[in-house]
Protein 1
Amino acid sequence: MAFILITVVLDATGIGLLAPVLPRLIGELSGADLTRAAVYGGWITALFATVQFLAAPLLGNLSDRFGRRPVLLVSLAAFGLNYLVMGFAPSLAWLFVAQAVAGLCGATAATAGAYLADISTVGNRAKHFGMMGGAFSFGFVIGPVLGGVLGNFGLRVPIFAAAGLALVNFIYGLLVLPESLKPELRRPFSLARAHVLGTIRQMRRHPLVFGILGGVLLMSIAGQTLPATWPYFTMHKLGWREQEVGYSLGAYGLLGIMAQAWLIPALMRRFGPRGTALVGQLLGIASLVGFAFAPTSPLIIACIVPSALSFVAWPAMSSIMSAHTPPQSQGELQGAIASAQSLAAVFTPLLMPRVFSAFAAADAPVYFPGAAFLLAAVLLVGSAVVVRRVTRDMAPLPAGAASTAGPPGH
């Protein structure tokens, strides 16, 4: 458990380390100004997410065949070496190649999630997934801060720091990480299942899981709307500066950590996994509507609280899907979840900033800068409806049941 949490923190920190220096590094390698560098940066982000979308089922299926440990360790080693390539990149093309490889290695979230499922019971699975989500948020909070500080010593220094973190984590895992998937629970590797369409076919055999995956996709698009549009929205509507944008995103991340680490156990005891997922989604809907219509900075800031608390929906939904998936297919499930989130990461930056721009422009037929948040709220309502419907007849999960017991009748 400790290794998985440290792995997730270091992975997220490594990605966050690049954020403050990547625009200037792109400009240095391409000779482009900041506005053009932003376009290149968007393409790089979309490439990373696209590769991750395609790679997650492959890594998940490989971990179901060979175990979690070797897949995690090979991915961590490749991640560290890839950062070294980025650090020495002589041209913009090398950055694109490196980010494509990073997308492949960054799909380790699928294997880490499968590892957690292996070592969890039904009673503590949501708590463990919440801790993993909190660890990821923590890494994204401290990563940009460290990147900004280290960037003062050179544009490439944060990249080499990220390489060091990944390689140290690899050595740590090599020394201490045991295998979590018993040999008798492994299944033969099938290339027909190790891609997105093959994974979809397999997940359709479990209607409850397949339905919730649809809810995860809608929820991910809604959730990623905030980071995709927040700087532009707050600077345009409220006149915020970069410092205020950074502070607000830091507060958002810290509240998300607290929600996933401390709030989930209380909600799970009170409402169960299904109720906790729906409570989280309702909080998210309320916050998005608030962002869309709130007229002043204090009200916008107040809406950050329910938005961060809505993070509790993700581990609750993950725990339901994990409990209704056979133990030998946990890697495949986590690959499907990671692919849904990566697909959202490709789609959201292409859609939501355009919606904001269309309704915030001076010549917009209707001036409404919060339009992207309102659209996200509609998508999250759709997610809540899907989750409520597919889990309506779900049998209660027995407290303390072993995760290796298989899907209870679904």
Note: Residues 242-293 form the longest helix (52 residues).
Protein 2
Amino acid sequence: MTTPGTAAGEDPDAPIVAVMARMTDRLERLPGRLGHHRVFLATYRRTTQAVWDAVGRGAFEDPRWVERWDVAFADLYLAALDAELTDAELNGGAGVPRPWQRAFAAPPGLPPLRHVLLGINAHVNYDLPQALLSVIDDADFADADLMARRRRDHERIDDVLSSRVASEQGELVAAGERVRVLDRLLAPLNRRASRRFLRESRVKVWHNTLELQAARLAGPDVQAARLAELEALSAAKIADLLRPGQVLLRLAVQGFGVRLPRGSMGDVRRPRSST
């Protein structure tokens, strides 16, 4: 028998298990006025468990690195959520990054799926490049073989997330999402579309990570400017998802991710693995 919230055979005191405990704590403490945040947080908690299970199955080339990355990634979301919970009544959430400000401020009455899409979009587009950068140092970027392994593990997350689509559809129904007969007929198509969205966004995330790393080499001012640029692009994507109309259709046409334009870093040399 395994400890609840752990993967079979894995350390119940591992950092990723602690992160899941923090998510559970936030779920239990969310005030009623912020109950619409619950659907994304619960989805993320289940997804984190699925990643941890995949680590236990040996699904990654470097499981210790994947765990460090997943914890760094979750920490960024939890920091934004905690800032929202602390600041919302005091100063309108001014300490929350703009993509998360817009996702958190979405009308509570939106369908559960829309809240999930908003949370995923803010987290992947804005937080994920930063999380990757925090667990890949400059020496790693210069090692083409190591970076190839990092990128393969980055892409393997797609398999974990895709495997969750059917289950998460059931969870959304339980949360109050109406499912028409047509939606049920299109479920296999939706799963394929989810894989395409994941693939498209992860290619852009990897590109944005490399752009931020080049900016890091150029100095803190350049890095801050490029991060602000990513924040603006990510916030604009959230604003687009909040517009009335067929959100999934717009995503199919425009894509799920955002892409930083290539920066002009003077004589900063890009690592060979960036191509």
Note: The radius of gyration is 19 Å.
Protein 3
Amino acid sequence: MSLAGRLAAHLGTTSPLALTLDGKTVRLALPSAWRILGEHKPRAVAALSDVDAGLREALCHPIGCEPFAPGSLVGKRIALAVDDVSRPTPVARFFRVVVDHLLAAGARREDLRVVFALGVHRPMTDGEAAAKLGAGALDGIAWHNHDAHDPARLVDLGTTTRGTPVSLNRHLTEADLIVCLGAIEPHLLLGFGGGLKMLVPGLAGQETIAHNHMVGVTPRHFNFVGEVESPMRLDLEEAARKVGRPIFVVNAVMNEELGLCRFACGDPIAAHRQGALWVREIARSEVREPADVVIVASNPMNADLRQGMKGVGHVQASVKEGGLVLALLGCRHGIGDVRVPERTLPNGVLRVALQVMGRERVLPFVDRVQSDAKIEERFLAHFSLQSARRNRIWVYSPGLPEDAGRRLGVFRQFGTVDAMMAAAARAAPLRATVHVWPHGGMTYAALA
């Protein structure tokens, strides 16, 4: 049979693959000659049947420090650093238990102060704050949005050994105790989220955030997912400790359905390290060989484009350089706060330009064409362009505007899954190998 005949036969037969995307079934028609090397799911871990009891046990037996003794918090001013609405942590399911635990140790509600760790994200509304913490949970407790841009709300605390200038929210330096509430999850820059990330970058000044984001980032090392002690992690921990106050963390460990499975509470370093190991057991999936094609769904990180694209980075090690990434992104709230450049090249042209440029010149290119980029955008632009240089990234998303791919340039966007799969059948090798990641937002690839 001629090559044209074999191609026609190849394109004419398919094998079905069903995935869910933000709770809805999506069916993909894979060419029958494609060979699936693995379907990688997080390790099955049941959610706690009694979240309150599980958390109380973790609070009473903290990792790396002593529990709060009765009366130990009398007269203490306590700052509660909480992640913002862009994060999926269901803080409302455990905030009251934390507050009750502090009150039982002698704290008063009027001495508690919630500060939302926005980094450089937009402020939380009254409704969002109430939803994040639970109806009525803020009664008698003051709360504030962090502002990374207002020097009057920040305190300068020196410089880290890696050269990061440290300025932190004034409420932290005015407290006698800081309690961080958030979650540990795979993270492209840090390796794993959680721990003192709530303070840096969460409650840091813009210069602190800008410098810390780029610590350790190089043209060859721009993805740190799965590393327990990344350069950025060690830098932010040094920066956060400059606040000079006792810090206690309450970090949730979640499964792929965002169910609360476990809590890592206690010392901000020791508890985080233990929690990161728990998350690694759930989220890490080994691949013996990279594939020609990777299919990844953004679940459960379906809020917006920034969250959805995390899955693409998480599974990067499982696709060959030059291979094809087929991303199914929920993007409930569309693009979100991703910066859309005024001008960009079409995806195909941009990829050619990046390959000619080479990985070493991508970051200087970002600094030249986006000299006015906001704090996080320098890293995000560098990561996106390096990823686009490395792989073809194709996206289907029911939540994105139909011109998002054209306006951003770093991926090619399709209006339907069928159109994306038909194009993939033509573009990929006839006998392509495939890795499938149904929960890319909470799973990551590691080469065996």
Note: The chain has 15 helices and 20 strands.
Protein 4
Amino acid sequence: MRNNFVFMTPISNEKYLVLFSLFCCALLLHFQRLIWERPLVMCFLFVLGIVQFINFRWIWSGVGIMLLSLYVLLPDFPRSKNHANLEVIFSIVILLILFFKIIKPRLTLPSHLASILFRIILVSVYFFSGFHKLNTAFFDISTSCSRHIYDEIILVFDAKHLSTSPFVLVTFQYLTIFIELILPFGIFFRKTRLLTAWILVFFHIYLCLLSLVNFSSLSFFWIAGSVINLENKPLSITQKNAFKAYYFCVLLLLVSNLILNFIIPSKIVFSLSSLIFSTGALIFSIHFFKKNKLQKLEYKKSYTAFLIVLFLGISFWSMRGYFGLGNTGNLTMYSNLTTEKSQSNHLLIDTKKTKIWNFEEDNVLVLKISDTLNTDLENFRLPVSEFKYQAKKWCDDKKFKNGNLSCILVYKNDTLKIKNLRNSEWSKPLWWHRYLYFRKIQTEQGMNKCRW
């Protein structure tokens, strides 16, 4: 009878169920600002979150959260932000695992393999995020994204009076590189695992001040999966309460964002969101990391081929910018990176030698574009494939159905005055242009400015 009450939960390992719920929390926080754009979806997500909070063994509430999230995120995949793309992939993989678990109840994911998977994913994501930052503009204190983040956080605390010395800015640059490029490898070793995890937790608490709670919650899911001993042993009452405290903070954060955005300034909301998330993350970490018996992994040769394919897949997706297949949505966020042949600024990779496809070099200069669109593309160049894809979206958008969408472009030294993009070849992309996601190209001289 009890199994029927909990909807025949196919997973017996409570630690897997906790990780499953942590991922659902990351999905919920992805939609923290979309309440008014998709109110019905958000209401369903919130109700499902409450159900999962009541009993994390009711996994069908989590399945509902994933399905609704895919409903929202899939139409933009892979042209979403980094964490959104990763959440789509993880949702599909987890749902497939559950499906096979239901049709083959004896199917199990060994705890040793699960731990290895979490660690490889965590290290890979951080490593490539740091690798892209190895460029001249990131190490220039006037343009560096590390300075951009630092300055934004200063604004949150309204501390404009604080003087920012070059030493502080340079320190933040190298700390960022160390934390992303080198530190995560400590998660592989038993003696450094907990220290690595704690530093990463506090790193994301810092980033939450920029309202990056959504990405931080996804990273927290990876950190927890990399540290927690995943052997099939029951959770203690203290651990269950710590997990509930984290989930409660997630739900509280959603409610507070909804209400407080209309009452107090947004920067205070950001600070409050950071405080709420930090409280939940710290409570969870203290009780799950403190008495966590570090597991000695048993590696089997049968894992090798799968893990190599996994790492190569992450590597190709992250490095495709250097080959010419899109340079955003692939962990290049806040990196100052330029991959165009004539402006390549990476310290280790010269894209003049690595570029296989020249989609980025075939670009158009946007001189003027309809004010109706409210874009920030004027006086920037954009790859033709990207411009056509964006133009098609503008033409299909119901918000712009009335009036002409005009623009003035410069393409191959010819100035093109287009009265209405709807009647132009510039709004007719090829189907595969969707998968070539490029950021705009700076035209002014000097270091590449910080962009997402």
Note: The radius of gyration is 23 Å.
